Amino acid sequence: MKKKASHWKDSLVRTMEIPGDLAYSQPVITILGSREITVENYKSIRKFTGTMIEIQTKNGVLCMEGEHLTIPWYEGGEVKICGMIRHIHFYS
């Protein structure tokens, strides 16, 4: 039954040309240079230190490593990370 519902949803999304981030709540990750990342559609902040931040998304964990990392704001499913970002990893 789930397979049928998934197939139906996929067909509807393609027909209506709905972006995947809206239809499936996929994370949207915007990177501005090496100093700022904005993540939309995240579930939770798993870990937060000055050198590492882990963000739980629907389909995995986004891990950022660097120096002087901060979270200036988070609200409504969107979080902004600032600092000197050295590495970005995504794993499930």
Shape: elongated
Annotation, overall tally of beta strands: 6
Strand content: over 45%
Strand count, sense and barrel status of the largest sheet are: 6 strands, antiparallel
Strand order of the largest sheet: 1-2-6-5-4-3
User: Which stretches of 5+ consecutive residues score pLDDT under 50?
Assistant: none
User: What's the helical proportion of residues?
Assistant: 10-25%
What would you call the structural class? alpha+beta
| Whole-angstrom Rg | 16 Å
Tally of DSSP helical segments: 2
How widely separated are the two ends? Answer: 26 Å
What is the string of helix and strand elements?
A: HHEEEEEE
What is the average of the pLDDT values? Answer: 86
Would you mind describing this structure in some detail?
- The protein is of the alpha+beta class.
- It has two helices and six strands.
- A six-stranded antiparallel beta sheet has the order 1-2-6-5-4-3, with no helix packed on it.
- Strand 5 (60-75) and strand 6 (78-91) form a beta hairpin.
- 15% of the residues are buried.
